[in-house]
Amino acid sequence: MKDDFNNMLKSCTELEPYLDLAVTESIAYLKRIIQYNQSNRKNFLESKQLYSQPLFLKDENIAVSLHILDTKYSDAKMNLNGQPFLHHHDFYEINYIYKGGVTNYLQNSVFHQNSDQILLMNPYAYHTVQTDNEDTLLFNIVIRQEFSASILSNPALNNLSVANLFLDTSLGMSPIQSYLIFQNEPEIQLILHQMIVEYYQRQPYYQQRLYAKFIDLWSMFARQKNRERQQGDKSNYPENMVEILNFIREHYADVTLNDLSKRFGYSTHHLSLNIQKHTGYKFNEIVSKFKMQNAITYLLYTEYSLNEIVDLIGYKDVGYFIKMFRKNFGISPIAYRNQHK
Question: Angle 264-164-268 (CA atoms, 0-180°, nearest 5)?
Fold first, then answer.
């Protein structure tokens, strides 16, 4: 019995048996991206966006792919003249390094990630990766945005303090926090390996089993962040800054720096400096990011007109909203809504 259990555990933790299948499926995914872009007359290099439709198979909410660009498993190289190509997508991404390491490039930061770290990436965060060498094995576990929001809004999960992780009410990170890094603890690694194996085996009800493991994984992430807060991790926002950012999130449509300063007892100059110090963004940039995030929600999940959305998120002019939306996402709001119907 013990040997059977050990064999089962070993089969769940070793990923080499699935490597050929992972490579084959990743090549197929890259081909689907090209076909999807051609059929929709989209140019990836211009739109800088990856879409969920080519990635997820029918009825999938959680999927796994192997990063094969700039590795020995693919000849598909992007000729970017040595410059990292930033892109974004409309799904959440967990980057798990099974072997090697990568350098992550974001709009405002560059950092190295090794197998001791797990990266959780926010949708719409502009980013790209460069592998340390051609032998690197980077698995991407991806989750549909709408699915994550629905499953983690279950009242039974409220005690996980998910909201406090990202200053948001679902898996969604705040638009001012485009990623989180977790330490790759043994229990977390086991869950990730089980998810990868479950996905490539595709036994009946594999998606349901992935849902359960996803919640289990999220509880482990939440525990880790809770421990960091209790230990006074210096990387976390000070308590009053969390309150300030939460207030901005809840009142983004009409909040002003002057009102915020009076509420929390700071001068506007001091508060402005502190917000930028702890977030890397200016007050107006944070407000704009919250407006864009909520505009996306209204476009995807309501039938509100542009005029109604502009009013709800606190802009005064539809033309200015369209200009800002194009600046953030590369397309117009109406085009974005039509793409995601």
Answer: 20
CA dihedral 121, 62, 299, 337 (to 10 degrees): 100
Amino acid identity, residue 66?
A: L
CA-nearest of 118, 145, 139, 149 to 199 is: 139
CA-CA distance, 8 to 262, in Å (whole number)?
60
Which pLDDT value is given to residue 12?
59
Phi, psi of 175 (to 5 degrees): -65, -15
Q: What is the Cα–Cα distance from 162 to 157, expressed in whole angstroms?
A: 8
Distance CA 149, CA 295 (A): 16
pLDDT in tens, 154-175: 545 444 333 333 434 333 345 5
Cβ-based neighbours of 245, under 8 Å, separated by 6 or more: 167, 174, 176, 237, 279, 286
Helical axes 257-264 vs 239-250, angle rounded to 10°: 140
Helix H or strand E segment including 144: strand 137-144
For residues 64-85, give the mean pLDDT.
Answer: 69
pTM (2 d.p.):
0.71
Task: Quote the crossing angle between the two packed helices 268-279 and 257-264, to the nearest 10°.
Answer: 100
